[in-house]
Specification:
0% strand; 6 helices; single chain; mainly alpha; 169 residues
Length: 169
């Protein structure tokens, strides 16, 4: 079998197809269109590696094509727990037409998840901040009460010392 995989036997083309046949090969960037690929290649001054990296970054960032199908309109507030996020992801993946559509749908879902996490984090931070402010106000109030108690006690001690001096004199 290893000889078949390596392509050393005559029957290799029968099992796996001809590797030189242009119909069996598909461009990695076929979704971009020939004109776009040529333009990127000409902008990179025919340096293939730079053009390839540029096309790869564009394909992962999804800058070229619009969505093949609409992503279901979800409000971030509708999805609260992890199970609902999983259901949302599965339903969107089931609707995807091809890999590029799937990537775009995943990007939309992940951006929505990020917004939701940031929102929940902000709400949590605001609650923590409010709780800390309340605790600080309570501590300030307690501190003022303790200052008054210490001042009163100091005054009483001073009065007692004066009385003790008067009694001794």
């Amino acid at each position: 079998m290893s000889t078949g995989v390596c392509g050393k036997r005559v029957g290799y083309d029968d099992y796996f197809g001809s590797s030189s046949s242009p119909t069996n090969k598909r461009s990695k960037w076929s979704s971009f269109g020939n004109r776009f690929v040529r333009k990127v290649l000409s902008n990179k001054k025919k340096v293939f590696e730079e053009a390839k990296e540029s096309l790869r970054s564009i394909s992962f960032n999804g800058e070229v094509n619009a969505f093949d199908g609409p992503v279901e309109n979800w409000r971030d507030e509708d999805v609260i727990d992890g199970a609902k996020w999983v259901d949302r992801l599965v339903s969107e993946m089931a609707k995807a037409i091809d890999i590029d559509d799937m990537r775009r749908r995943i990007v939309v879902i992940l951006e929505s998840l990020e917004r939701n996490i940031k929102h929940n984090s902000n709400v949590s931070e605001k609650l923590d901040c409010a709780s800390l402010k309340e605790n600080l106000q309570s501590l300030i109030s307690d501190n003022q009460i303790l200052k008054r108690v210490v001042a009163n006690q100091h005054q009483r001690i001073s009065e007692n010392e004066e009385r003790a001096k008067e009694v001794q004199a």
